[in-house]
Structures are given as structure tokens and as C-alpha cells.
Amino acid sequence: MPLIAGAESPIPFTTSSGECLDPYGSGLAIGREVHPTVAANVLFLHNSSNWIRGSENALLTLLRGVDREKINPFLLTGNCELAALAEANGIETLVHLMPEIMVDGAYVKLQFALWARTVETIVSWIKQRNVSLVYCNGGSTCQVGYYAAKKCGIPVICHVHSPYNRRYILLYRLHLASKVIFVSKAIEKSIREKQSFKAECEVVYNGVDVDRFQPSQARDRSWREKLSLPQDAIVFGQVSSLIHRKGIDILLRAFQLVTRQYPNSRLVLVGDGPQRADYVSLAKHLGVADLVSWTGNQADPLPFYQQVFDVNVLASRSDAFPLSVLEAAACALPNIGAMVDGIPESVLNEQTGLLFEPGNPGSLAEKMLALVAAPAWRKSLGEAGRRLIVERFSIERYCRSIEQVVWNKLSDG
């Protein structure tokens, strides 16, 4: 792995008086604006299996979009796929297995030796590369990031993507971080009701590349042909892992109800997962197997939003703040989402999409049927969704907000 070049001297900064308003429209002050004169070396930590999903994409978006004159990022992760993509984007990276110490019923991880080695590895990097701040992308990395940063006397920021229970909050040391960022107001509320926090907390919404994710001028008919989809069919789609939390079974049952009235409807599921065989069997049991397309994992979902889907669906039982609804809306697709966690913060009911009662196939089918019968409404919802994404959820807003959080924390000393 390449060595990481770090600054050799302390990082100067200047501050301006006044408050910086939350760029996502909440009107909340996020502290003083800080104007760096030399980029801060920031070590990003991430722990996951070898896949690229929501939190990995959010981190890649940040690493690619951060202003290198303000933040010089490098990455330590056990995810080889993430490491390869980061390095391809010029981010110096070390692949290192990340530990976990947790006892939660049958789930037991007591990796004390690996924990100690990892903390020492992080401390070594901090000292050798003159790291100014540790940024933990996800809760579990705070379990090592907090202690390494504390040992070196530098701040640690934890970016929380999940509604952890109190056991995880305490053992991951989230409540002791110098700053905590939540991906949605719903997740912030859920977690802060379980535990008080030492430091300030803040919501920063994920962002999407609105220049890349945008409506197609004209649809490429070959994409539907590849999937054997009629050109005149109303196509519902969901981009997600094929797991229980994403509500694939709920969507399949709702789709069956839709096809009773509109047999020309189709469903496309983009993604894969350990429960795929179960869902394929369910589709057969429901009698809709011939109307459902399973694409498997796709490196790029963009063509499906632009060329295939008429309506984007997310039937999740739980979802902190999913990127897929942002991407779909940026492509001017109407969203139908479960009224759960952070989804209602990006899908505005009857303004940019429709919300349904979580876990209820009948409620979802009702919303799907409403859009099948109203092409003009689909179009107006999609256009409004595109405007919302451009105004509130762009990559630029996301990255500039994170940069400001980092530099405000550095200015605090």
C-alpha cells in the first residue's frame, strides 16, 4: 500500500464571526464558519464486508467530492472493494481488518487482541502522517477510532447511519465522540432518546450527483428489450439488497395486487442478497414470477432510473436515509416509500412522491395503483422531486457541510 503524505507542521486556520446556517433548510445554526489556509489531514475509518451499499456510497461521495484544499483524506478499512475504489479516486488507503467487541444475545464478538492492534495502527498513522482528526464512518469504527484519537489528543467525529440500540451506542462509544453526525432527523431522534451525548450532534443529509443523476432526454428502448419488458408497460423498480429489512416480500405482495387490475405492470428488482432464492420462490407462489425481473447486483443503477423505471419504490421496514430515493428523484422519477425512519425526510408525500404504511402490502398497492392510473401526476411528482434534490440534496451541499463540520471541530481545539 502507498504511504500517505501528511503535513509536517500544525494546520493554521482563520474564523469569521457569526453563525453558519444549516444548508439543508432546517434553519439550525451549525457554528462558526472556519476558513482553512492549509488542508487538514483527516483519517477516515470504515468497517463492513466486501460490498458497496449505502454507507459505502455515501463515504465514496464524500471522498471524491471533498475540497482537497481544505481536507486531505485518507482511508483505513477492511472492505477491499471500497479500498480499491478509493485508491482509484486518488485516496491513499490501507486495508486493515476492523475489530468489534459486542455481546448482544447470540451475536458475540470479543476481538480484544485485534482491537488493541488496530488502535496502535491508527495511533501510528496519526503520528506519522500528522492527522488532525479521525472520522468514523459508521458506529463500529468509533470503538477503535475514539481511543486512538483520545490517545493522540485529537478530535473524533462519528457519522451514524443506523438506529442503534443503547447497548451498541455505549459499547461503540458513540456518546463520547467529539461530534456526532446523523444521516437523518429520525435517526438522531431515535438514538438521542436512548442515550445522552457528550458533544454536539448534527444532521447532515446524504447527497447525490445531480449532474450525473438526471432525466434522460429520450429513453433508450434497448434497456427494456434486454429485460424482455414491453415498451408500454408501467414498470415499478426497487434498487436495494435482497434482505428482509428492505421489504422485498412486502413489495412482491403489493405488486400481485396491482397486477390484478393492471396485468401489463412489471417489477424490476436491482440488487442481490442472501434471501434472493426465498423471494424468487415467493414470486412464483404469488403467480407473478413471469412479471418480475431480477437483475442481480449492478455497478451502476443509473440506466435503470433513466431507461427502465416509471416509478421507484422503497418498501423498507427500516431505512436511515436511503440514497436510492435521492438518485431516483434526481432522475425525475416519482418515489413510493415506506413512512419509516428517514424516508419521509426526502420523499414529501403527494409533493415529490407517495408514502405508505410500513409493512402493509395493501397500503403500498394502493399507492402503486394511484400512479399507474395517473401519468400526468407521475410526471409532476417526478419533476418536483428533481427540484427538491437539486435544492437540498446535492453532492456540493453534502461535501461543503461535512467540510464545515470538520473545520469547526478543529477550530474548537
Reconstruct the topology from this structure.
Layout: E1 13-15, E2 34-36, E3 40-46, H1 54-65, E4 71-77, H2 80-88, E5 92-95, E6 101-104, E7 107-110, H3 112-128, E8 133-137, H4 142-152, E9 156-160, H5 166-171, E10 179-182, H6 185-192, E11 201-203, H7 221-226, E12 235-239, H8 248-261, E13 266-270, H9 276-286, E14 292-296, H10 302-308, E15 311-314, H11 323-330, E16 335-338, E17 353-356, H12 361-372, H13 375-392, H14 395-411
Helix pairs in contact: 3-4, 8-9, 8-12
The CATH topology of the largest domain comes to Rossmann fold
The CATH architecture of the largest domain would be: 3-Layer(aba) Sandwich
User: Unreliable segments (pLDDT under 50, ≥5 consecutive)?
Assistant: 1-32
Number of strands: 17
Mean pLDDT: 91
CATH class membership of the largest domain: Alpha Beta
Cα-atom Rg, whole angstroms?
Answer: 22 Å
Give the percentage of residues in beta strands: 15-25%
Helix content: 25-40%
Distance between the termini: 31 Å
Number of domains: 2
Give a brief description.
The chain is α/β, with parallel strands linked by helices.
Written account of the structure:
38% of the residues lie in helices and 18% in strands. The protein has helices spanning 54-65, 80-88, 112-128, 142-152, 166-171, 185-192, 221-226, 248-261, 276-286, 302-308, 323-330, 361-372, 375-392, 395-411, and strands spanning 13-15, 34-36, 40-46, 71-77, 92-95, 101-104, 107-110, 133-137, 156-160, 179-182, 201-203, 235-239, 266-270, 292-296, 311-314, 335-338, 353-356. The strands form four sheets. It has a seven-stranded parallel beta sheet with strand order 5-4-3-8-9-10-11. A six-stranded parallel beta sheet has the order 14-13-12-15-16-17, sandwiched between helices. Strands 1-2 form a two-stranded antiparallel sheet. It has two domains: 13-207 and 394-411, Rossmann fold, CATH 3.40.50.2000; 221-392, Glycogen Phosphorylase B (Rossmann fold), CATH 3.40.50. By secondary structure, the protein is α/β, with parallel strands linked by helices. The longest helix has 18 residues, at 375-392.
